[in-house]
Design goal:
heterodimer; A: two-stranded antiparallel ribbon; 2 strands; B: about 70% helix; about 0% strand
Chain lengths: ~350, ~400
């Protein structure tokens, strides 16, 4: 297996070395001192001419085949042409890198200037990630707990806010603008700044805490304060789920509510019998979105851990790719689990 | 006693209407329900904007105000020097046209190495290229080319006046978003309109790619870009975007897929009978009908690409620094950006949360302005299009 991968690597390296040679020949002209717009334009014109030339060569045979095809075949070919960018991208930018990540995770990768050398070590990297170095496992546990705790709260809050926005109230535009603002402005640096310097937690006044302490026990109060510390962070993650739920709610026919109320249903049973079944399919979609968002967010410590491990002399790319693989598989398992739990099991029979 | 009986009777007569007024007929049209709705909405809205409001108030305080325990929200006097520091730290103090002059006349001022010079040159070409692009593409949809020309020239002039780091961020986020959305429209159209084998497999693979974390593939990808020679240039962002692997690309593809699925096919069939080929049907009929999908994906994609630091930092290799990256390094930039000319009170020079928050406010300002302009169309588009994914 190892040798096979090495052979494939070799073939790939050979092809790339030819391409690099060509590129460097072209580059020498335009990386030199006398850089000008004219040269840049000439470079692009050459490229366009090359493409035109290839087209000219292929033209005859392609045209003949095109004329012999039936209408259905023609439509299918056109469809493949339309999605061809994605297929190319999938092969070149997902499949090949994915294979390389797996290969690198079994190796120690060293870099000397532009050349990478690989030394096969088997499962050693995974052993180090999971059993020797302890930071990553702890962060992984934190991530799992965070996702499992956050996602139900986010779903519940976004359903509530979507229901509020769906009501017929004054100043709807302003409310919508406020609730969708975090989608636009939320980023890692902003959240880091806010949580570092205390803009993120609403501080309950001591009076309120004292009053609450007489009613509920202290450990429950701790939970309560803890919830308020992360409340804004959770609410700011709600943006896109709110949007998805709102779009689902607006699809529900208004006459259904009227019919139900004529039959004597109050708003509570309308919510459980009509609204919730209508927006239920969106829950699994939102769950996937939330988990992917939480995993890819710049504030996630695992991301920076992998980034640091990549540049660490004792770890490098091999160790970092082992980390990334473990992380990805954990995330896939979480998503699969949550998706199975929230899947629409009604078989589209009782759906409105 | 007689009066009391009258009062009692009155109450008994009026109670049902009063009760109906307050509670309604159980379907949420009573006054109490309305009050509860408004109360909840306002509370949630307050919690949403609380951090922004807090940051804004803190950013107006001097350091002496920050340590004063009697001052919680309102500063004793408005202290604008935090913003002076933030403008220096985020490199907002220089307009873009100065860089243009340096590119055209004194290129030795840009940098010693060749790559940032090339990056700057390409940026200039793209920004000036807005004019012909808008005129050519807009010419497909409107006759009034003169107006298109004026509008695009106006945009270019605004770019010239804006601070350099804003232009950098808009350039990085804007071009990448446009490439991503355009390729998503093509791919979504292909999936929605044509019948071919393996469509279900492709949709499944798309969802799988969406689920993969970005930390998984960035190492081999950046090695690949290094061997091709596009790492450190904008092509490292444009190439994956064009091939449908940009940020959130699957999301946009699904939005376009859903939208084109909803559109009636008869219009395109009649155009086909009239002799239009597939490309002109796509550009002249399908795209103009998908305006809401474009508004949603352009707005959201711009925000996502603007806020992305991790991948942009790695792929661009630090050749272009966007606003979020500068914000992250704001504290580190303190040494060079600190303003010692504050007369006699050196307490206020130190880096505190007031300065960090001033930087944060300046960094989100362009996005908030853009959102303020576009939000009405954004929300309208959400109403028009059925974005539910799946």
């Amino acid at each position: 297996m190892n040798k096979l991968i090495e052979k494939i690597e070799k073939v790939f390296k050979y092809i790339w070395s030819k391409i690099i040679l060509l590129a460097s020949l072209l580059k020498k002209g335009y990386m030199s001192d006398k850089i000008s717009i004219v040269r840049l334009v000439l470079y692009y014109v050459t490229f366009a001419f090359l493409i035109f030339w290839i087209y000219k060569i292929l033209d005859g045979s392609v045209k003949r085949k095109w004329h012999n095809a039936t209408f259905v075949e023609k439509r299918a070919i056109t469809g493949y042409l339309f999605i061809s960018p994605w297929i190319l991208g999938f092969i070149g930018l997902v499949l090949y890198p994915f294979g390389k990540v797996i290969y690198m995770s079994f190796n120690i990768v060293n870099q000397y200037q532009l050349d990478f050398t690989y030394k096969w070590v088997g499962l050693d990297n995974f052993h180090r990630v999971l059993l020797v170095d302890i930071d990553f496992v702890i962060e992984l546990q934190n991530f799992i707990v965070r996702v499992l705790l956050y996602s139900p709260v986010i779903i519940a809050l976004s359903i509530i806010i979507a229901m509020l926005l769906n009501q017929d109230i004054r100043g709807k535009g302003i409310f919508r603008m406020i609730f969708f603002l975090p989608i636009i402005i939320l980023n890692g640096a902003l959240l880091e700044n806010m949580s570092d310097y205390g803009g993120m937690d609403i501080q309950l006044s001591f009076f309120v805490l004292d009053v609450l302490n007489t009613v509920i026990p202290t450990f429950a109060l701790g939970l309560f304060i803890g919830l308020f510390e992360i409340l804004i962070e959770i609410l700011w993650y709600c943006g896109v789920p709110i949007l998805i739920f709102l779009a689902m709610l607006q699809k529900v026919d208004k006459s259904l509510y009227e019919a139900a109320s004529i039959d004597g249903a109050n708003s509570w049973s309308i919510f459980w019998k009509i609204v919730l079944p209508a927006i239920y399919p969106a829950i699994s979609v939102s769950i996937i979105f939330i988990v992917v968002f939480l995993a890819n967010f710049d504030g996630n410590p695992i991301n920076s851990m992998i980034f640091i491990a990549r540049n660490e002399p004792s770890q490098k790319e091999g160790y970092a790719s082992a980390m990334a693989l473990v992380y990805a598989s954990v995330q896939m398992v979480i998503i699969a689990l949550l998706f199975m739990l929230t899947r629409d099991k009604s078989n589209k029979k009782g759906r409105v | 006693m007689k009066k009391y009986a009258e009062f009692k009777r009155d109450i008994r007569n009026k109670l049902p209407t009063w009760k109906k007024h307050m509670i309604g007929n159980g379907n949420g049209n009573g006054l109490l329900f309305k009050i509860a709705i408004y109360f909840l909405s306002i509370t949630f809205a307050f919690v949403f904007v609380y951090p922004l409001f807090y940051m804004f108030m803190i950013s107006l305080m001097s350091n002496t105000d920050l340590v004063d325990s009697t001052i919680l929200w309102i500063p004793s006097s408005i202290y604008y020097r935090n913003y002076v520091f933030a403008i220096n730290g985020l490199a907002l103090n220089e307009s873009y046209y100065k860089t243009v002059i340096n590119v055209l006349l004194h290129k030795e001022l840009i940098d010693a190495t060749a790559t940032p010079y090339l990056v700057e040159l390409r940026k200039l070409l793209v920004i000036i290229g807005i004019i012909p692009l808008v005129v050519l593409f807009g010419g497909l949809y409107t006759e009034n080319k003169k107006r298109l020309f004026y509008v695009s020239t106006f945009i270019v002039i605004i770019f010239m006046i804006l601070p350099k780091s804003y232009v950098d961020s808009v350039y990085v986020a804007g071009t990448t978003t446009i490439v991503t959305v355009f390729s998503s429209a093509i791919i979504g159209y292909g999936l929605a309109r044509f019948k071919f084998k393996g469509k279900g497999v492709i949709m499944m693979l798309m969802l799988l790619v969406y689920v993969l974390p970005k930390t998984l593939l960035f190492m081999p990808r950046s090695m690949l870009y290094n061997t091709i020679g596009i790492k450190g240039t904008m092509f490292a962002l444009w190439v994956p975007s064009f091939f449908g692997q940009g940020l959130q690309a699957t999301f946009f593809i699904l939005i376009f897929y859903q939208f084109f699925k909803m559109m009636p096919q008869q219009i395109e069939e009649s155009a086909y009978i009239d002799g239009a080929n597939t490309i002109s049907i796509f550009f002249r009929i399908a795209l103009p009908m998908a305006v809401p999908a474009f508004v949603i994906s352009l707005t959201y994609g711009f925000a996502v690409n603007w806020n992305e630091m991790f991948l942009t930092n790695i792929y661009l290799g630090g050749n272009i620094k966007t606003i979020p990256m500068l914000l992250q390094g704001l504290q580190a930039a303190w040494g060079s950006a600190a303003d010692y000319s504050v007369n006699s009170d050196f307490v206020n020079v130190d880096f505190t949360e007031a300065k960090a928050f001033a930087g944060t406010m300046l960094s989100i300002m362009p996005l908030v302005i853009m959102y303020g302009i576009i939000q009405r169309f954004f929300i309208e588009s959400i109403d028009k299009s059925g974005i539910t994914g799946e």
